[in-house]
Amino acid sequence: MSNWLEITNLESIPVLGSRVVETDSIKIAIFRGKDDSIFAIKDECPHKQGPLSQGIMHGDSVTCPLHNWKISLVSGEALGVDEGCTNVYESKVEDGKVFLKLS
Amino acid sequence: MTQDSKSNAKQNLILVGNGMAGMRTIEEILKLEPEKFNITVFGDEPYGNYNRIMLSPVLANEKTIDEIMLNDDDWYKENNIQFEKGKKITEIHRTRKEVIAEDGTAHPYDKLLIATGSTSFMLPLPGVDKYGVIGFRDIKDVDTMIEAAEHYKKAVVIGGGLLGLEAANGLMKQGMEVTVVHIMDTLMERQLDAPAAKMLQKSLEEKGMNFLMDHQTEEILGDERVTGIKFTDGTTLDTDLLVMAVGIKPNIDLAASAGIHCERGIVVSDTMQTFDPNIYSVGECVQHRGVTYGLVAPLFEQAKVAANHLVELGYARYEGTITSTMLKVTGIDLFSAGDFHGDDDTEELLFHDVASGIYKKLIIRDNIIVGTCLYGDTIDGTWYFQMMKDETNISDFRSTILFGQAHLGDAGHGDETRVAAMADDAEICGCNGVTKCEIVDAITEKKLFTLDEVRAHTKASASCGSCTGLVESLLAHTLGGDYSQAPSKQSMCGCTELTHDEVRDAIRKHGLKNHEEVRRTLAWKTDDGCAVCRQATNYYLLCEYPEYNDPESRFINERAHGNIQKDGSYSVVPRMFGGMCTPQDLRAIADVADKFKVPEMKVTGGQRIDMFGIQKEDLPEMWKDLSEAGFVSGHAYGKAMRTCKTCVGDTWCRMGTQDSTGLGIKLEELTWGSWMPHKYKLAVSGCPRNCAEATIKDFGVVCVDSGYELHVGGNGGIKVRVTDFLTKVDTEEEVLEFAGAFAQFYREDAHYLERTAPWIERVGLDKIKAAVLDDEENRKKLYERFLISQKPAQIDPWKKHAEGVDAHQFKNIKITVEA
Fold first, then answer.
1. Which of B65, B249, B298, B577 is a plausible cystine mate for B293, CB 3.0–4.6 Å?
2. Residue B722 burial (CB < 10 Å; 0-12/13-18/19+)?
3. Contact status of B528 with chain A (Cβ, < 8 Å)
4. Do B560 and A54 touch (CB under 8 A)?
């Protein structure tokens, strides 16, 4: 399970936007920052499981669309005074392709 | 020894005065640039920074010293701040840029912040140096009072102002017999008029406080310790403790001796800078635009501004604070602000009910509140105060304004608004289920001062906002004396200090074309902004440039053209113009519902059909089918024009006066698809019986025999508001022109997320009449601009997406993971 999986082309993810990667068991949101950095996070807000992929991205965090919690895309932790944490995954970009590690 | 400030090395920042103002500034600096300075704090009190507002509750045995500490010793350590506790600074060497402590040590600074505060003004009476004669300003004074209460019986407080009465109340709670001596014949004459002062005095007398009004003290009697005082009329009064609470005086000696320009206080500019460019000053020692402040409220704004300049951001300005007063005595509700006496040019609105102990007075100049004085029922104090600061024109509701905001239709709370009397488990915030007790605990335990802080920590008032007045009252009641009112100038979000209006003006003035230009030109603190400013800025940009769109700066509903539900599914609402439909329409919707196995359907209040539980990936296919059947998006998800509700009209109804359905369809055809600051609804009723509820819509038409009445600014939302009557017109063409012009004026003038109802209450109906009704030429221009923005807006987003635009967002990337 610790292999890099090729997911998609970088260009298929809008800047400051996201795509959802779906496996049999889990949904992962892949975000693309302004500098083409890539973040992968479980598509569930630690608050009430809102789909983070549908939120607004800024810097290296995202605002959940359901109740406006701000979640760090680096650590998966809620920012500000809210408390909670969701999973993040390793990701990388090589030759314009996005890779993900699901371990 | 001074470090080279040009190098990367940290600069030295020295703060003299370890009180709330100085420390708040340090906290603001740490928020902005934690690594900029080596910070050293000198405080001559042997404590950390404590909440001075809370001294009265400590004296009244309601709080302990520990409970009112804001920054304890650990806090200074954690933030790498060198804290010189109990070390007094005696000298500032401005040429060498050093401060000298009383032990002779010199400490170099690059920037110096003076926050030496104020001391009680002690009347220069013979005997003022006797034991037992004190002021009421710091923990030491409180300790002296508590100690005196253990050994002695009688206390006198000179001064019937806010501080004097709080001291007297506290001493009474400590078990002493207290007499308040006041030189005037009414209490708190700088905050209250005579009737309110009399009511206050009566309540305090009922609590056991004694008063000697109209008495001037001449001499303090006793040998080493005070035993009594003598008045100018020759009479005397025995006492064991004398508290002077006649006023405060800014501590300027240190600054003045260093040659920094001082008058009554240390004179600062709008950037909180003194006449020495390396020295800033904040708090009660400061004189700004000729004003010194003896309250805590202004320091929050001052601290922000000083920090902004100390870290060299350099754009914030302090423009003074309009302060209000509340007395922190349990069981006494009192609020005052501004000019509560009035003059020849002002009018007075008065409500005085002696039996229930309620007194409300508003001073009005040209229909703008300039002062208020409330006693007994103060829940609307914050509302009046906000309108006073906003200079809101109250002509539309001046006949009911004294009955309060609840009377204007705050259906959620009504009479149960006296927070002090509410039970601990009473729910304050209905949206997030937050009780009074939870809010009060958060305020005291987490040491919160502002509405924003309470919102962040408790979520109270953070959703719909209808309980904001209650939360502000709770803040006031919990913090007492002077808590920090919401600043008169509300910035858009944490990314900028600018207000909605300022951002919008800048977009227009500088012709800013996109998000990046806005953030760069206006020096945003964050690279990408945040969810709040991105959505607002996106709206302001698309209002200026109708073709503009940045999907990633829109809320998901407007990106996916559906309403996100709590399980992450979406709802789909096709538009049914004027609520009219045919059997084919209904059949097409039924077919779509069957095909996509829609779990639930509902007929909405907006006269159309809602399909729930749609997965995002199914949306484009569903839209394709609906689009082929002739439907367009209903925009039930957007900050946009939603529906136009209609009644049957004269086609069928025996009461109908006009073709209300026909007109409703025309109005919806005109306005559908337009993006608005908030949701926007229309209705047309065919007669004054008003079956389409046109008088609680953003734009409502009531048909009458002779024409059409136009109503604006209503809503049935959190706070029901009935429309204001705009005008009556004769023809359908005029209705359409007014509808477009009003919508466009709202689009161009209101803040993002402000519905027409609060917008009209904020700017006043007169402004809307002036723009839309009185000035025909302007109305035609507004209408024309509306039609121009409608061109791109009426390209159906559903059809566009069904044809493949932005397809990626609806399609998940499916992968299989081998075990």
1. B298
2. middle
3. yes
4. yes
Which helix (DSSP H) or strand (DSSP E) does residue B302 occupy?
helix B297-310
- Whole-number Cα distances in Å, B620 to B617, B809, B811: 7, 10, 10
Strands B266-268 and B286-288: parallel
Q: What pLDDT is stored for residue B453 in this prediction? A: 84
Residue of B528, B568, B819 with shortest CB distance to A58: B528
A81/chain B closest Cα distance in angstroms: 6
Distance of CA B495 to the CA centre of its chain: 17
- In chain B, % of residues over pLDDT 70: 95
Query: Are B812 and A48 an interchain contact pair (Cβ–Cβ within 8 Å)?
Result: no
pTM of the full structure: 0.72
Please check whether residue B804 touches A, CB under 8 A.
no
Name every chain A residue with its beta carbon within 8 A of the beta carbon of B457.
81
Check whether B223 has a pLDDT greater than 80.
Answer: yes
Look at residue B626 in the predicted model and tell me its pLDDT. Answer: 96
Looking at the complex, does the CB of residue A19 fall below 8 Å from at least one CB of chain B? yes
Name residue B109's amino acid: Y
Partner B contacted by A71 (CB < 8 A): no
> CB contacts < 8 Å between A and B, how many?
92
Q: How confident is the model at residue B412 (pLDDT cuts 50, 70, 90)?
A: very low
CB contact, 8 Å: A6 with chain B? no
Minimum-distance CB partner of A58 among B530, B555, B815: B530
Where residue B486 falls among pLDDT bands split at 50, 70, 90?
Answer: low
pLDDT score for B68: 83
Q: Average pLDDT of B329-339?
A: 81
Long-range contacts of A27-35, Cβ-Cβ distance < 8 Å, separation of 24 or more? A27/A51, A27/A53, A27/B812, A28/A89, A28/A100, A29/A53, A29/A62, A30/A91, A30/A98, A30/A100, A30/B813, A31/A57, A31/A62, A31/A73, A33/A57, A33/A59, A33/A60, A34/B527, A34/B528
- CB count, 10 Å around CB of B747? 20
> How large is the greatest C-alpha to C-alpha distance in chain B, in angstroms?
103
Segment B647-692, tens digit of pLDDT: 998 988 998 899 999 999 999 999 999 999 999 999 999 999 999 9
How many residues are there in chain B?
819
What is the residue-wise DSSP string for B133-187? EE-SSSHHHHHHHHHHHHH--EEEEE--SHHHHHHHHHHHHTT-EEEEE-SSSST
3-state secondary structure B411-466: CCCCCCCCHHHCCCCCEEECCCCEEHHHHHHHHHHCCCCCHHHHHHHHCCCCCCCC
- Nearest beta carbon to residue B564 from set A1, A49, A54: A54
Supply the pLDDT for residue B301.
86
Using an 8 Å Cβ cutoff, are A50 and A65 in contact? yes
Confidence of residue B330 (pLDDT cuts 50, 70, 90): low
**pLDDT tens per residue, range B2-22:** 444 444 579 999 999 999 899
Number of C-beta neighbours around residue B72 at 10 A: 14
- pLDDT tens for residues B748-784? 999 999 999 989 988 889 999 999 999 999 999 999 9
Residue B328: what pLDDT?
67
The whole-number pLDDT of residue B482 equals: 53
Q: Say yes or no: B535 contacts chain A, CB-CB below 8 A.
A: yes
Residue B236 has pLDDT above 90, yes or no: yes
The rounded mean pLDDT for chain B is: 89
Q: Is B530 on the interface with A (CB under 8 A)?
A: yes
Residues of chain B neighbouring A51 (CB-CB closer than 8 A): 564, 568
- Smallest Cβ distance to B531: which of A7, A20, A68? A68
